[in-house]
């Protein structure tokens, strides 16, 4: 029961993080992002 719950939480965190990054990356052109800078920082700055 516990390993299944842990696995489920890890998958949810991964999916929500990837989904958030995609939603933040969609409104800006790809040329505005640079290597080593996180998408969250680029969008909110």
Automatic annotation (TrEMBL):
Ranges where the Amino acid permease/ SLC12A domain occurs: 1-34
Transmembrane segments: 9-30
Main localization of the protein described in the UniProt heading: membrane
Highest classification ranks of the organism: Bacteria, Bacillati, Actinomycetota, Actinomycetes, Pseudonocardiales
Topological type in the membrane: Multi-pass membrane protein
Protein name: L-asparagine permease
Organism: Kutzneria buriramensis
Gene Ontology cellular-component annotations: membrane
Pfam families (alphabetical): AA_permease
Keywords: Membrane, Transmembrane, Transmembrane helix
